[in-house]
Amino acid sequence: MSKIILTGDRPTGKLHVGHYVGSLRRRVQLQNSNEFDKIFIMIADAQALTDNADNPEKIRQNIIEVALDYLSAGLDPEKSTLFIQSQIPQLCELSFYYMNLVTVSRLQRNPTVKSEIQMRNFETSIPVGFFTYPISQAADITAFKATCVPVGEDQLPMLEQTKEIVRKFNAVYGETLVEPEILLPDNKACLRLPGTDGKAKMSKSLGNCIYLSEDEKELSRKVMSMYTDPDHLKVSDPGKIEGNTVFTYLDAFCKDEYFAEYLPDYNNLDELKEHYQRGGLGDVKVKKFLNKVLNEELAPLRERRRQYEKDIPYVYEILKKGSETARETAEQTLTEVKNAMKINYFEDEQLIKIQSEKYANN
Ligand code: ATP
Ligand code: MG
Fold first, then answer.
1. What are the backbone angles phi and psi of residue 210, rounded to the nearest 5°?
2. Is the CB–ligand 1 distance for residue 22 below 6 Å?
3. Is residue 25 within 6 Å of ligand 1 at its C-beta?
4. pLDDT at 122 > cutoff 90
5. Which of 19, 58, 282, 329 sits most deeply, having the most CB atoms within 10 A of its CB?
């Protein structure tokens, strides 16, 4: 069986370091491993519209931002198909048929959708499109016959939903769709990177992000005002590591070689943590180190982004070409789906023959 990746992001803003460690960094590694037959990376504009229906301009403006973030992170249009969801109408058609395989109560149980509804104060006015987006995500994944979906932990319920749809579809209509596997970050800190305010998730919607394209000054401002251990008041006080965002970010980004370069008093992160817990290590020193680490990690991305920013029409061209390729693949799957469901009235000579015979003796 082919090894195929499908994943993507909503163009509701620039991508942040949470996206990077949760999925984007992994995608680039997988792309460069050459172990996959096909890689599809989707800018999910139609999904973004499900909770931004009154602000289509926001989505429109952010498509190029996400594309630039992709390219700056190292996604290579020669190796990965970068495309825009709305340009693949086959995905809507698949969703429409999948909707019949899912119950309302099943959708209501989805914990990620539940918390997103709360976050958006949608309780009494949930748009139907938003409520059903896990089904449209199943269409996105299955249209490309994805076997591997590298995403953050918040996407687990979506993958479960997709698997259920695949099983149900195959049981009812015959083996057609491929069951995908979720690929979560192997580093615990990256499963759901917290925001700079210490809140559970860095999210565009919560305004607690460090963006991939952040300039040095803004990055430093954000890092220096980050949430740490609120009880760690004096340098001499023992500090807590758990729930301390600065250390979570170091878990996600730090490599041993950064100590030799920027903090030679320590050999590795364990030693730094140990000192912080013991007392005698101030937040400012740790934050300055984190700032250096993040700067080092983001510098090559910033540089690549600057290059692509010089030729925006080329970036749109990449997305246009990618969308054409993606459409062909999705069309192929849609044909298989409709054949399995026997929605192929005009192509099925047998059907026409049988119906003719039925009326032949009248
Ligand atoms: P929005 O607030 O518009 O939903 P978002 O920041 O949640 O935006 P998405 O576009 O919904 O971003 O998510 C894209 C991908 O990034 C998904 O794979 C998701 O799991 C991952 N991701 C998003 N935020 C984080 C985070 N804080 N930590 C780890 N992964 C994340
Ligand atoms: Mg999200």
1. -110, 115
2. yes
3. no
4. no
5. 19
- Cα(29) to ligand 2 centroid in Å equals 22
One domain, residues 45 and 172: yes
182 and 228 in a single domain? The answer is no
Q: Which residue shows structure tokens 């057609």?
A: 176
Phi-psi sector, 150: left (phi>0), alpha (psi -120 to 50), beta: beta
pLDDT at residue 52 greater than cutoff 80: yes
Share of the chain above pLDDT 70, in %: 100
The DSSP line for 96-124 is HHHGGGS-HHHHHT-HHHHHHHHHTT-TT
The four Cα atoms 203, 87, 160, 119 give a dihedral, to 10 degrees, of: 30
Q: Taking a C-beta distance cutoff of 8 angstroms, is the pair 241, 305 a contact? A: no
Structural domains counted in the chain: 2
Establish whether residue 201 lines the binding site of ligand 1, counting it when its CB lies within 6 angstroms of any ligand atom.
yes
Question: Left, alpha or beta for 342 (phi > 0: left; psi -120 to 50: alpha)?
Answer: left
Q: Which domain holds residue 163?
A: 4-192+311-352
Residue 343 lies in a domain: yes
112 Cβ closer than 6 Å to some ligand 1 atom? no
Size of the chain, expressed as the number of residues it contains: 362
301 and 316 assigned to the same domain: no
C-alpha to C-alpha distance for 105 and 35, rounded to whole angstroms: 39
Interval 46-75 mean pLDDT: 97
Radius of gyration of the chain (CA): 24
Give me ligand 1 centre to Cα 204, in Å: 8
Q: Which residues are CB-neighbours of 96 under 8 A, at least 6 positions away?
A: none
CA-to-CA distance for 228 and 280, rounded, in angstroms?
Answer: 15
Q: CA–CA separation, 100 vs 103, rounded Å?
A: 8
Taking the C-alpha atoms of residue 209 and residue 222, their distance in angstroms, rounded to an integer, is 9
Core vs surface per residue 170-181: b (16+ CB within 10 A) or e? eeebeebbbbbe
pLDDT of residue 70: 98
pTM of the model: 0.94
Ligand 1 binding pocket includes 152 (Cβ within 6 Å): yes
- What is the number of alpha carbons within 13 Å of residue 52 lying toward its C-beta? 20
